[in-house]
Amino acid sequence: MADWTDNLPQAAREYLEGKRLDEVECIISDLPGIARGKALPASKFAKQKHFHLPDSIFFQTITGDWGEAAGETGFIEQDMILVPDMSTASAAPWTGDWTLQVIHDAYDRDMKPIPFSPRNVLRRVVDAYAERGLVPVVAPEMEFYLVGRNTDPGQAIQPMMGRSGRPAAARQAYSMTAVDEFGPVIDDIYDFAEAQGFEIDGITQEGGAGQLEINLAHGDPIQLADEVFYFKRLIREAAMRHNCFATFMAKPIAEEPGSAMHIHHSILDAKTGKNVFSDDDGNETDAFYHFIGGMQRHLPSAIAVLAPYVNSYRRYVKDHAAPINLDWGRDNRTTGIRVPLASADARRVENRLAGMDCNPYLGIAASLACGLLGLEEKQMPEPECKTDSYQGEGDVPQVLGDALDLFEEAPKLHEMLGPEFARVYSIVKRAEYEEFLQVISPWEREHLLLNV
């Protein structure tokens, strides 16, 4: 192997042990979270310190179209300098040859971070914590569906066929038998994750037909976002090996629960390493309450990032383990903000509003930004919800257009995430929303064609 491979992460070195590395995939996340980049022969990758991609990739919509700014008079498409972060070097074990993936960071020609690159947005927020002597720690939970192969968008998505030959059953949360139905797919997920050096905290069956959840161990926000970015790809690849699809849509099947990316947060003092949510006696601190207060105050403006597509808002319905408001409560899964049962050292706040369809870098960045604004403003939260939060009023935007309105009127959040990012994100999401509004749905044809 070439000398540069001697400094790879341990899992990558073990994957290549005794093998000849063939190819390196140089990748970066765009706004939707799609991996963009180039595949290079390993020999060529070893000879270069960076490569180039046009900055216009961040103006692409989920349909592959372009946000308005990419076509504006005066917009100049420029090449970015993409620099590999070798700590992210990871196997691509589903490929036919010996391949590594490496996540890259985006810079302009003056080596300043590209402000609308999602990984840079998250780093900006993490740096804002560091400037205040704080270290954020997160733990994401990933929900997704294994579904039958859907090659016709006109057809409804169906649960996958389990190894019993029957469709995956709904309402079987935490059932080990249900998990066994997907055994071959789950085996490949474990194998791929092990080859990539990822630690899975657990896999459970959720409430939907073919819906699973993977929990990741807590850690550094950027590293965890990298892992979720990688996990989405490896799960899709594992599913396709077994004639099914993995989908991270927020609401793929109308009558089933949606898929969330719950984000657990705790904050450490950089000097002492202690959790600032707990005092020396193990009691809840003002910082704990201020963090929740910041989420209640600023999350409405961040919903457009946590729920980035028109489909995302179909998840926010009562009694489907999805929040409809910003209530907070201890061990209360009906609330949008939950405080799980935990020791004082592990005291944390869970954001249940983020959908699994959000970009993990942006979702974690927006969630942490809201909490940090709360720490700065020192505003106490509303009284704790100790009952069924679904009995209260909904205060989560119900459509993407309303969420974008709130996002565009949030200068404090823009400053946390980066004003240029906020500008570009709004342009891209407005383009997607307007494109969706041009589509006539089957419901409209069925009920309006002959009746109005």
UniProtKB/TrEMBL annotation:
**One GO-annotated biological process of the protein:** polyamine catabolic process
Q: Which GO terms describe its molecular function?
A: glutamine synthetase activity
Q: Which residues cross the membrane?
A: none
Keyword annotations for this protein? Answer: Ligase, Magnesium
Q: Per its UniProt entry, which superkingdom is the organism in?
A: Bacteria
Q: Does the keyword Magnesium apply?
A: yes
| Pfam families the UniProt entry points to | Gln-synt_C
Needed cofactors? Mg(2+)
Gene3D superfamilies for this protein? Glutamine synthetase, N-terminal domain (3.10.20.70), Glutamine synthetase/guanido kinase, catalytic domain (3.30.590.10)
- Domain named GS catalytic is located at 118-452
Q: What family is this? A: Belongs to the glutamine synthetase family.
Q: What is this protein called?
A: Glutamine synthetase
